[in-house]
Amino acid sequence: MSLAPSLTDSAATGCCSPPSVVEMSLDDAERTARALKALADPARLRLLSAIAAHEGGEACVCDLTEPVGLSQPTVSHHLRVLTSAGFVTREKRGVWAYFTLVPGAVEQLSAHVLAHLSRAEP
Description:
It is a single chain. This protein has helices spanning 7-13, 26-39, 42-53, 65-68, 72-84, 105-117, and strands at residues 58-60, 88-93, 96-101. By secondary structure, it is of the alpha+beta class. It has a three-stranded antiparallel beta sheet with strand order 1-3-2, with helices on one face. The radius of gyration is 22 Å and the shape is elongated.
């Protein structure tokens, strides 16, 4: 005779409660992880900060290499990742590319993560 509770015993006694918030789907988790991965780099965070610090939240790629101390090709790579993730937009003007923050993109990501990972209030 076993003293350990069986799976059917725990289901009958209700030891497991149903989720109180909607769980994140696999597709949603993958999209969210890609967005978080785009932000999970010190150079990219510094680039977002530098763009935000410029008047109008817009900066030319030529103004972003010195503040982060990286070469122009490396900065361009990081900006491409941020653009693909939806955190900045790119506008070509002559030979230069200008980057602008997407309003509310970081806030939307934060709210989305919090909505799925915060404990529900009793």
